[in-house]
Amino acid sequence: MAALIKEATAACRDLPTLEHLLKLDEMLRAELTRLAPIVQQQADSLSRGTVDWWNRQRALDATRNALIEPRCEGDAPLPAAMLCAELGRRLRDLASYAGEVDRG
Fold this sequence. Notes:
Blueprint: H1 2-9, H2 11-14, H3 18-45, H4 51-68, H5 77-97
């Protein structure tokens, strides 16, 4: 998971091929879809309005917004890299709340 996050957040710097970015996008979306219900269950078990509740809700809202963005199907890799970087940031947040990576 940490390697996937690192690759995604470095996508704009490294600018992999469009084919690779589309595969990365698919992997990121799958992990986000898997982790979102886990973090939502955590939020549901917390007292509404607490800092921990708000932090998880913010992460879930940001994840939903990022997942709404369609995959970049054009021939320019930069927009796809930017989306992968955003999905990677969202994955870092959810994975840290789900206890799958260290927060950092």
